[in-house]
Prior knowledge:
This protein is mostly beta strands.
Amino acid sequence: MWTRIGLIAVLAPIAAANFGCAPPATGTTMLIEDKVYTVTPASVNVKAGIVTGEVTEMKVTERVEKGSGRVESPAKLTGSLKLKNTSADQTVRLVGGKIQYIDAQGKPIKLEESRTEPAIRFATYGSAERLDPGQDATQVLDVAFPAEALKAKKLKEIRLELVYLPSPYREEKVNFTVSIGGQ
């Protein structure tokens, strides 16, 4: 019995040191927050030939370290792109798109060297990236945004370039004679 009490007396301070009486860890934790910039207007109508649509919910977000302001993740433009084929007799195959940021002098604002150009890759609709007459599709925008464009009065407009292939759309009917069970 005395050995049991002695064992408890030896183990109790060790357990207390490991489970709550130990000093807190001194490591620093970085707090990262999203810094959101509003885009005005947040929604715009677009038209490129027989394709019309709307870009909605636009905003620019970058992740920064709270306190120091150090950029953790560079700025991105996000939103939603809804496109519609307004043609009555052509199908549209969506190939891709590109976004350019234009300054007050009408010149493109370049992205930082380490970042890739903001390209739009269309999701697959059915078996192909195709919109039949009257059909529409929605694409999420999530593309790089240049840090230079965040400066006051630097960005004047955003240019959306769409690449698509129109092709004639025809619908034909064919009737053929049949019989059932040798009748």
